[in-house]
Write a structure and sequence with these properties.
Residues 10-178 form the RDD domain. The chain is mainly alpha-helical. The chain has helices spanning 12-44, 54-79, 86-90, 106-135, 143-165, 172-177, 186-190; strands at 7-8, 93-97, 179-184. The chain has one domain (7-190). Helix 4 (106-135) runs antiparallel to helix 5 (143-165). The chain is globular.
Length: 191
């Protein structure tokens, strides 16, 4: 069944504002994490030593506390009946299946979320390896780590460039998942 809602390509600025609104939500979660870190510090006078878990353990804990909750936020919003995160909802956008403009499958939303968060996780990998090296007094970092650090900083710009210049405003996460973001006139149709 094809959607009866007209589908329009969103402008780049609208997509960017939606992204910034979603980052405000994410920053809210990061504030909660910061406060939950400061409370034990105010009692003990010491911060938890993430590196005591090893580089992989610290990265995994960071994934559990930050990346996974953000991924759940993105997934729940885009897999919902509104097909949108808070930022997209505010601006009248929604995620659709690129082939038929219907609601995407949950698997497509999972893939979209993983690809969207991949640069973030690569950056965390780099940071934890740099911190671990520095904690061991090693300030000359291996070439692979420096190349990965540069890539981690460039990939988000590539994602944004795709959305800015690709015909349907589809980022790599949309292209891989088979989705796209559209302007929804559902608001006008519903009310």
């Amino acid at each position: 069944m094809t959607s009866s809602v007209p589908v329009l390509r969103p402008k780049f600025g609208v997509r960017l504002i939606a992204l910034l609104l979603d980052y405000a939500v994410i920053l809210g979660w990061m504030l909660v994490l910061a406060i939950s870190t400061l409370v034990p510090y105010s009692i003990t006078g010491e911060f938890f030593d993430w590196l005591a878990l090893g580089t992989a353990g610290a990265q995994f804990l960071g994934f559990l506390l930050l990346v996974l909750p953000v991924g759940i936020y993105l997934y729940v919003g885009e897999a919902s009946t509104r097909q949108a995160t808070v930022g997209k909802r505010v601006l009248g956008l929604r995620v659709v299946d690129a082939m038929n403009e219907n609601r995407p499958s949950r698997l497509r939303i999972v893939i979209r979320t993983i690809v969207k968060l991949l640069p973030w996780e690569i950056a965390h990998f780099v940071v934890w390896n740099i911190v671990a090296n520095a904690a061991n007094g090693e300030f000359e970092f291996p070439l692979w780590l420096m190349v990965t650090a540069v890539a981690a900083n460039l990939i988000p710009f590539v994602y944004i460039a795709f959305v800015a210049f690709q015909k349907d405003r589809r980022g790599p996460h949309d292209l891989v998942a088979g989705t796209r973001v559209v302007v929804s006139t559902r608001q006008k149709l519903d009310g």
